[in-house]
Each structure stands twice: as C-alpha cells, then as structure tokens.
Write a structure and sequence with these properties.
The structure is a single chain. By secondary structure, the chain is mainly α. Helix 2 packs antiparallel against helix 3 and helix 2 packs across helix 4. The protein has one domain. The chain is built from 4 helices and no strands.
Length: 89
C-alpha cells in the first residue's frame, strides 16, 4: 500500500480554487479510507480510535482553510499522513 502511495504523481499546483478544494476533499477521503489499514499496520487499536485519527486529519486540513491562493503548494501526499500517524505514538 505504501509503495503505491509513494509512486503516485501529484501535479504541482491547482489551476483554480475549486480544483484545490476538490483535491483536498479527495485527500481527506483517501486518508479516511486508508485509516483501517493504518490501524492494522501500526497496531493502533489500543492507542487511538479511527474517529480520533479522522478528527486529527480534519483539524490539520481546517488549520489551512484560510488559504485562498490556489498556487499554494499542494496538500501533503498520503505518505505524509502515514508519517503524521507515526508521530501520534
């Protein structure tokens, strides 16, 4: 799973604000769908719940909700989210 995430190519910038928002929603959706696998890989069942991880991801996205320039660098790839989960330990 992590190899496919590292191999994914991400365009450098969004063309418009709508495209940037859609990319962030796609990132959130992908991250939330991969949470059960992350929980299993890192044995996080005793440490944190899926809803807590989902909340942490959404709070990181909300932290940057004030950005209105689509030329801002794209959101982190899903592999960065896995690194974020490692930091929760």
């Amino acid at each position: 799973m992590s190899f496919t995430m590292r191999a994914a190519k991400v365009p450098p910038n969004s063309a418009s604000l709508d495209e940037a928002k859609n990319r962030v929603f796609d990132l959130f959706r992908t991250a939330c769908r991969s949470l059960p696998s992350v929980m299993e890989i890192y044995n996080l069942d005793d440490v944190v719940t899926i809803s807590q991880l989902r909340s942490a991801i959404s709070s990181e996205i909300r932290r940057n909700s004030h950005v209105t320039n689509p030329k801002v660098p794209p959101p982190p790839p899903p592999s960065a989210i896995l690194a974020f989960v490692d930091g929760l330990d």
